[in-house]
Design brief:
Elements (H helix, E strand, L loop, with lengths): L2 H25 L1 H5 L26 H20 L4 H12 L3 H23 L14 H24 L2 H46 L20 H8 L2 H22 L6 H34 L15 H21 L4 H10 L4 H25 L5 H29 L3 H31 L14
C-alpha cells in the first residue's frame, strides 16, 4: 500500500464514519428530542465522573496486570507507540478502574516508560552516522503539533459519540498496523539481500588462493570508540532540549489556567485560541530552518539528508507532517495515549531508520504524556499508590525492553524487528480497544442512548 493509497484509505474511512453519524442522528431525531439531558458517555477519557479506585492488593489481578503492563511498556517503547491502547483496557477489565481513571493511569505508565527509554537512548550511539540517536529536529517539528492535537482530541472526545470513536480507532489502527507490517517485510527483504552481499567477500576468500581480501562493505575509516559519558554528552543537545521544555511548559501553564475557568467562557476561548499561535511559531521556525537547509544542500549537490528523514523538505511535505502531527495528538486525546500510534509509523514512512524512529517517538511522547499526567494530578484523577507502582513497572520495562531488543537487533542485524514490534502493538491495541468499544456501543444501543454528536459546552 503506497502512502497516497494509505491516506486515501484513512480519508474515505473517516468520511464514511462521520457521515453515518448524521444519518443515525436524523433517523432518531424525534426520539432524541424527547430524551432527558445526560452527560457524555463518549471516550475512554470522558466516561463518567464517578471514580472507581480498587485497593492496591497484590492478588492475581495485580500480578496479571503487572505482566501485561510490563510487556506492553517494553514492546510499546521499542516500537515507539507507548502502549496506551493496551493499558486502558487492562486497567478497566482486569484491575477494575473506571475508564477516566484508567486513561489517567495509562498516561502515567507511558510517561514512565518514555522517560526510562529516553535515559537509555542517551547512552546509545547512532548505528551508522555521527549524529545523536535522538533526532531533535524531528522532535521540534512534531512536538508542538502533537500537543496541539491532544488539546483538540480531548475537545472532540466530548462531542464525538463513543461508537464513532471506536470505529475511527479501528480504521486508523488497522491501517497503520498493516502499513507498518508491509514496511517491515520490505525492510526484512532488503536486509536479507544486504546480508547475502556482505557474505560474498568471505565466500570468495574461502575459495581463493588464500589471498587476503578487503571487505568493501565495512567502512574504510573505523568509527572512533567513545566512552559511555562521551556518548551521553554527544546525544544530549541542551539548546534544543530547552526549547522543547519551553514549549511543554507553555502548554502546561495554559492548561492549568484553563482548568480553573468556566467552560466556554470568554477567557476559556481566549486561552484555547492562544495555543495556536504559540504552536505555529515553534513549528514555523523549525519548518523554515529545515526548508532552507534542505534547499542549500540541494544547491551544493549534497545528497545527505538534513536530518534522519530521507524526504526533501518541501512545503507540501511540511504541511503533510503538520497534519500528521495534529492527527497523532488528536488520537492521543481521544484514547488517553501519547500519540505514538501515528508518530511511530509516520517517522518510518518518511525514511527514518527504525532505531532512530523508536528513540525519537518515545522522546516526544515523554513530553505529551507528562503534560497530561500533571493535568490529571491537579484534577485528582488517579490514586497515587497505583500510579507510583505502575510507573515503576513501566520504567523497568522501558529500560529492559530497549536493552534486550536493541541487543537482538545488533546480533541479528535485523532492524526490521522494531517495525514488526510496532505493527504488533498497534494491532493488539486495535483488537483490545475495538472489543471494548463494540461491547459498550452495543449496550448503548440496547439502552436506547443518544448516538449522535453532542454539544461541547453543555456536555461537560
Amino acid at each position: 500500500m503506497a502512502t497516497r493509497g494509505f491516506v486515501l484509505y484513512l480519508l474515505a474511512g473517516f468520511s464514511v464514519a462521520v457521515l453515518s453519524v448524521f444519518i443515525i442522528s436524523d433517523h432518531e431525531s424525534y426520539k432524541n428530542n424527547h430524551l432527558p439531558h445526560r452527560s457524555s458517555p463518549n471516550s475512554v477519557t470522558l466516561d463518567s465522573d464517578e471514580k472507581t479506585w480498587p485497593e492496591l492488593e497484590f492478588d492475581g489481578r495485580i500480578v496479571l496486570a503487572t505482566i501485561i503492563g510490563f510487556l506492553g511498556s517494553a514492546f510499546g517503547t521499542v516500537g515507539g507507540v507507548g502502549g496506551g491502547g493496551i493499558f486502558v483496557p487492562m486497567l478497566t477489565l482486569i484491575v477494575g478502574f473506571d475508564t477516566k481513571s484508567a486513561a489517567a493511569l495509562s498516561k502515567c505508565m507511558i510517561m514512565g516508560a518514555s522517560a526510562s527509554s529516553f535515559w537509555y537512548n542517551l547512552r546509545v550511539q547512532h548505528p551508522c552516522r555521527e549524529v545523536p540517536i535522538l533526532d531533535y529536529d524531528l522532535a521540534l517539528l512534531f512536538q508542538p503539533m502533537l500537543m496541539l492535537g491532544i488539546t483538540l482530541g480531548v475537545a472532540l472526545s466530548v462531542v464525538f459519540p463513543y461508537w464513532l470513536i471506536t470505529v475511527l480507532i479501528i480504521i486508523l489502527f488497522l491501517g497503520t498496523s498493516s502499513r507498518s507490517f508491509f514496511r517491515g517485510i520490505e525492510m526484512w527483504k532488503e536486509e536479507s539481500i544486504l546480508k547475502k552481499e556482505m557474505s560474498r567477500p568471505r565466500e570468495t576468500f574461502a575459495n581463493s588462493r588464500g589471498e587476503l581480501l578487503i571487505d568493501t562493505y565495512e567502512p574504510l575509516i573505523p568509527r572512533e570508540e567513545k566512552t559511555p559519558m562521551q556518548i551521553f554528552t554527544f546525544n544530549l543537545r541542551w539548546k534544543k532540549l530547552m526549547l522543547l521544555v519551553a514549549v511543554w511548559a507553555a502548554f502546561l501553564v495554559l492548561q492549568i489556567i484553563k482548568n480553573d475557568l468556566v467552560v466556554c467562557s470568554t477567557w476559556y476561548w481566549v486561552l484555547t485560541v492562544a495555543q495556536f499561535p504559540a504552536t505555529l511559531a515553534v513549528f514555523g521556525y523549525e519548518c523554515v530552518r529545515l526548508y532552507k537547509e534542505s534547499k542549500k544542500r540541494k544547491s551544493l549537490g549534497n545528497t545527505e539528508s538534513v536530518c534522519e528523514a530521507s524526504i526533501e523538505w518541501t512545503v507540501p511535505h511540511l504541511i503533510f507532517c503538520a497534519l500528521c502531527g495534529i492527527l497523532g495528538g488528536t488520537v492521543g486525546g481521544l484514547l488517553g495515549s501519547g500519540g505514538g500510534f501515528i508518530l511511530g509509523p509516520l517517522l518510518l514512512e518518511i525514511g527514518v531508520i527504525p532505531q532512530v524512529a523508536s528513540a525519537t517517538a518515545t522522546f516526544v511522547m515523554m513530553f505529551s504524556s507528562s503534560l497530561s499526567v500533571v493535568e490529571f494530578y491537579l484534577l485528582n484523577r488517579f490514586p497515587i499508590p497505583y500510579a507510583l507502582y505502575l510507573m515503576s513497572v513501566s520504567i523497568l520495562a522501558g529500560f529492559w525492553g530497549q536493552f534486550f531488543v536493541r541487543k537482538l537487533v545488533t546480533f541479528l542485524k535485523r532492524a526490521s524487528l522494531i517495525v514488526f514490534i510496532l505493527s504488533a502493538v498497534i494491532f493488539a491495541s486495535a483488537v483490545t480497544m475495538g472489543v471494548i468499544g463494540i461491547e459498550k456501543s452495543i449496550r448503548m444501543i440496547q439502552n436506547h442512548e443518544f448516538m449522535g454528536f453532542l454539544e461541547f459546552c453543555s456536555s461537560q
